[in-house]
Amino acid sequence: MLEIDGSIGYGQVLRTAIALSSLLLKPIKIFNIRKGRPKPGLMAQHLTGVKIAGEFCNAEIKGLKIGSMEVEFVPKEFNVKDKKIDIGTAGQISLLLQTLTPLLIFAGKSVNLEIIGGTAGLGAPTIQYVKHVTFPILSKLGIKVPEIEVLKEGFYPKGGGRVRIKTFPVKRLNSIELTERGKIKAIRGISIVGSLPKHVLERQTNSAIEVLKEYGFDDILISSQLVHTYSPGTSITLWALAENSILGADNIGKRGVRAEVIGEECAKELIRSIESEAALDKYMADQILPFLALAEGKSRIKVEEITEHCRTNLRVCELMLGVKFEVSESEKIIEVEGISFSTNFKKIKVL
Question: What pTM, to 2 d.p., does this model score?
Fold first, then answer.
């Protein structure tokens, strides 16, 4: 049984390791889960991810409880099914999808999920980022973009957001060369305010537009949504449509922070990504790595920043898949020769 130290990248280790374990039917033991966090061990969204992944591969699981610092995961048989999932808190739906997406696309069939949880929260991409940035980028590897319907937004602490997603099967992923972003063609976005006055929405949206216009963009379209949510909250997601890629940024409302600041911060973060000349923003950089490692052939990407989450995913993929990532710290370029995983994949070399 492969043992992995869960303290090196907090929840990211768990999400990636469980996904690859389920896909490869490879037993793993993860210890020191989220060690060093204010609340170490499994939280609701982590527990749900492990539980559902386990159901998708008929796994024997030890340590599956809130606060657990150690999990043993022994997958038996890969069988993904339609499912309704309730995270039970404002645990982020986007983070759950990081665990489940590799399993869903290699299910050999279309899969329908309905997930209840948070749609925008601290330390996670918004569901709008997943819909408008993550999956369109992953489609370059041959993944058909899923159908995603946000039925209800959910903010901390009550959550209660509802998302329907339909994924489509792929036999094998192709490699990509994504080092040249190309010209920025347009800026798009979605600004959402839940159970707060309309002027909050207007201030958040307009401040982002003003920053983007001042920078020199003119093709800007940010839709505004005033919705009912169980807990009040706001989010804004922006993305830059380039010739060869998409760069994204998001932000959420914070107590004591004016709506104008939330919009401005998001716009400025997107501008920083654009100015980096990268083909992938710093959040997409770590999300794409497991898919590159599973693909057929050599992939090469230029990223905005090599974050700790990015380094964590590199290490977990290398450990579990036997691949070797080549990283240029100065040029922010990552290369890897994938294992050409497919639904009838039988053999895996492990370092």
Answer: 0.96
